[in-house]
Amino acid sequence: MVDYPIMARDLASIVGAPQVTSTLEELAAWAVDGQVPGLAVFPRGLEEVERVVTCAERQGAAIVPRGAGTRMAMGSPPRRVDLIVGTKRLDRIVDLDADNLTITAQAGVTLEQAQAVLAAHGQTLPLDPPFPFSTLGGVIATNASGPKRLAYGAPRDLVLGLKAVLADGRLVSPGGKVVKNVAGYDMGKLFIGSIGTLGFLVEVTLRTVPTPEAERMLVASFGSLSQALEVSGHLLRSALRPAAAAVLSDQASNRLPDGVTESLPKTGYLLFLSAAGSTEATARQMEGFRRQCGDAGAAEMTEPAGGRLTAVWTAIGALQMGIPIYESATVCRVGVPISALGRTLEAVERLVSAAGLRLSMLAYTGVGVAYCSLTSAEPVLACLDRFVRALTDLSTISQQAGGRMVIQSAPLEVKQRVDVWGRPGSDFRLMQGLKRKLDPKGIFNPGRFIGAI
Amino acid sequence: MLAGRVLAELRGIVGPGGMLASPGDLLAYEYDAALERAMPDVVVLPTSTEQVAAVVRLANREGLPFVPRGAGTNLSGGSVPIKGGIVIALSRMNRILEIDIPNERAVVEPGVVNLDLSMALAPHGYYYAPDPASQKVSTIGGNVAENAGGPHCLRYGVTTNHVLGLEVVLPDGEVIETGGKAIDPPGYDLTGLFVGSEGTLGIVTKVIVRILPLPEAVKTLLAIFDTIEDASRSVSAIIAAGLVPATLEMMDKHMIAAVEASLRSGFPIDAEAVLIIELDGLRDELDRQANRIIAICQEHNVREVKAAASEAERNLLWAGRRGAFGAIARVSPSYLVLDGTVPRTSLPEALQRAAEIGRRHGFVVHNVFHAGDGNLHPLIPYDGRDPEQKKRAVQAGMEILETCAALGGTISGEHGIGLEKIKAMPLVFQPADLITMRQIKHTFDPDNLCNPGKVLPAADAAAKTNSAHG
């Protein structure tokens, strides 16, 4: 049992009393799956992080790292939540090396902060997690990606180096700031997407890209999911390959904000195709997109104005977590081989409808990922069994297709019945081994990752 | 010498044609493309995952080290069996198991030659992007072990960006799978950890890779410079201008002379440096991109920019570039090649300092490298028959790596640490990093049988080096 008053005093001696929160009202807002933390602390700089982690480790206190909190719904219910360690004061851009296309920033810097600084140099971070106010640390800890994944990859492809504090207070600094680096084991990969279970991310170095000269979008509506997917698949395998491709079900597009929907076709499955690059290439891509969609029987096509594109993609990305975020929708991420997406999603539509639940779907067709949001007319508890059955079937279908389903957010009652990560594979023994070696007391986010690691 | 019963048992696993144990046969496996040599006790050439696993289990039972080996093109001594034992040569596991165009994936055995994969994909309009200069011989398994790069990695990323799943025989003989055809499998990114682990964490027996559609059009430029500074400043300026060509390769006059003497690729022997700049994409956009690049080169006093007029001319340029290391054989019996990386803006300084270091030790440093990535390949020709020369070459190499580290770069961009750069590891890693890497190694290979003596300095060596550095 952690003695919170003693730990609060120790933490205050490290970061100063105002940066330690111990009042229940404030802490309640940071509950994870209903568990209210004992304390919260906001260190500034590497040294304070090291001391905070060491302090928690000594007391055996469970640390839950937290950025902007946009992805706190992820993960299995925690075994314990003693100490929230927030990154809001790790807010410094350490190095912007525009000529080398790299940026180094502390974990609490938000994506929009980084983008604003980079924009002045004609560059951008090709990361688009659901929310622009997500922190870089959070994006990397969750390997969050969005529509741009197709053209630019995920955080795992963009991180050049990072600094993380391990449970015993030791600092590891895998990678660096050069784009090619094979010195030693690629330890950075372990921290990316590990949702804070191996160490605390303090600083990251990312590759940036030149902002494309032109960016355009075609939105086409189709009567069926398979039509939309067929067009997108055809374009992906052509020279006109889009930079991003997404399909929204009717129900999903209905959830987009009015300011966005006014520039979109009104009904059907909407296919969003993006062209990014030179003026010449994007012009030819758009022409090809129109022709393909037209030939495939698109009911309606629109091209949102250039200035609206970010807003459109942001609104679409928000569907990855269910909008608004406080809605208690169960959102699951289905990741399957690209060509299996169509039949998988058709099966999902059938089984969710059979369960009497409502479904809205967002699919990134070029990468084989779909976000399925399940809701019910009645309270979740009244139809819990149906949720559980639908999710279990969804997981089975995804696995049969050669992929996986991972629950992104769900009411606690659902999480208690369905493993959000699914069953671990043959490599799980190594994951456990790594966790035991690097965090022997299990102080980092205990219980929240795969296999309740 | 291994006991007869061990040899008999190994022969039983891989079949009579799958084992080499005579001294003459073993000689072919005592070296790779780096400097060190060491004889294995036996070489096995398994044809299946089951055979690899059985060999590894036997090695465990007998306490024998084992070393995976692809085509032996390793440039850091990673495939040399420094502690003897069993070399597991994967060259017979060379089947392309699946080409899956709708999913943009290929599944291959580790012994598939890199270029063979792209050639098999070409009729489908696809290719495998990482293209190490050794691609005609090096294997995908070896590429995975080293996280190999190549000219086109500037735009398309290195091996780790293209590997989505693996089947691995762990050091205790258990077979596991990581990742798959779908992206983002839940759990720690073990695929990412295995890539670049230089065969020290297990033996990869199957690889799932991403494949990409061939570009519609390609344009290859040869920019000829009268000073190496102008060439390297052009590289920085092209990157800083936000242009990302598919390749941005540099060759200096020493390398040009060696290449032209052996391959006659059409590089001007009176130039101080050339850049091979390749653009790809839609045909509509390449001319304007090329013009922007030419303008930047002109701002940096380029003598001439030529465009390859035909596919044959383009192939000739690339044959020269890819054949550069081989061409050195005309200049010198041996060479040491480093592959440190620096931030691209530090290229001019890094090249100058490498040349100085070479001069100080009595060598002419030759350069042919991935300039766009800041990934140097300073090549030091020397006579390996003279131990004193070899010592000086190694010393010069170490100083060049120190320079790369001091300029904010790293000691290896793509060739790996292997045996050769172990001593340089403390230049870029703190003791805490090395301890953590050793913990990872121990998690996978507690008995230290899987390619022992590579990548990581021994615990006490690290402590010593560290105290020596204060």
What would you note in describing this structure?
The complex is a heterodimer of chains A (453) and B (470). Helices cover 34% and strands 21% of the residues of chain A. Chain A is an alpha+beta fold. Chain A has four domains: 83 residues, 2-Layer Sandwich (Uridine Diphospho-n-acetylenolpyruvylglucosamine Reductase, domain 2); 118 residues, Uridine Diphospho-n-acetylenolpyruvylglucosamine Reductase, domain 3 (2-Layer Sandwich); 98 residues, 2-Layer Sandwich (Alpha-Beta Plaits); 96 residues, Alpha-Beta Plaits, CATH 3.30.70. In chain A, strand 17 and strand 18 form a beta hairpin. In chain A, helix 1 runs antiparallel to helix 3, helix 9 runs antiparallel to helix 12 and helix 14 runs antiparallel to helix 15. The two termini of chain A are 20 Å apart. Chain B contains 17 helices and 18 strands. Chain B folds into five domains: 86 residues, Uridine Diphospho-n-acetylenolpyruvylglucosamine Reductase, domain 2, CATH 3.30.43; 118 residues, Uridine Diphospho-n-acetylenolpyruvylglucosamine Reductase, domain 3; 110 residues, Alpha-Beta Plaits (2-Layer Sandwich), CATH 3.30.70; 91 residues, 2-Layer Sandwich (Alpha-Beta Plaits), CATH 3.30.70; 41 residues. The C terminus of chain B is likely disordered. In chain B, helix 16 runs antiparallel to helix 17. Chain B starts with a helix and ends with a helix. With 470 residues, chain B is an alpha+beta fold. Classes of the chains: A alpha+beta (453), B alpha+beta (470).
Q: How many beta-strand runs of chain A?
A: 19
> What is the rounded Rg of chain B?
22 Å
Q: Flag low-confidence runs of chain A.
A: none
Overall helicity of chain B: 25-40%
Would you tell me the overall average pLDDT of chain A?
Answer: 95
CATH architecture of the largest domain in chain B: 2-Layer Sandwich
Count up the domains of chain A. 4
Share in β-strands of chain A: 15-25%
Provide a count of the helices of chain B: 17
Low-confidence segments of chain B, given as residue ranges, are 464-470
Question: Could you give a short account of the major beta sheet of chain A?
Answer: 8 strands, antiparallel
CATH topology of the largest domain in chain A: Uridine Diphospho-n-acetylenolpyruvylglucosamine Reductase, domain 3
**Amount of beta strand of chain B:** 15-25%
CATH topology of the largest domain in chain B: Uridine Diphospho-n-acetylenolpyruvylglucosamine Reductase, domain 3
Major sheet attributes of chain B: 7 strands, antiparallel
Provide the spatial order of strands within the biggest beta sheet of chain A.
15-12-14-13-17-18-16-19
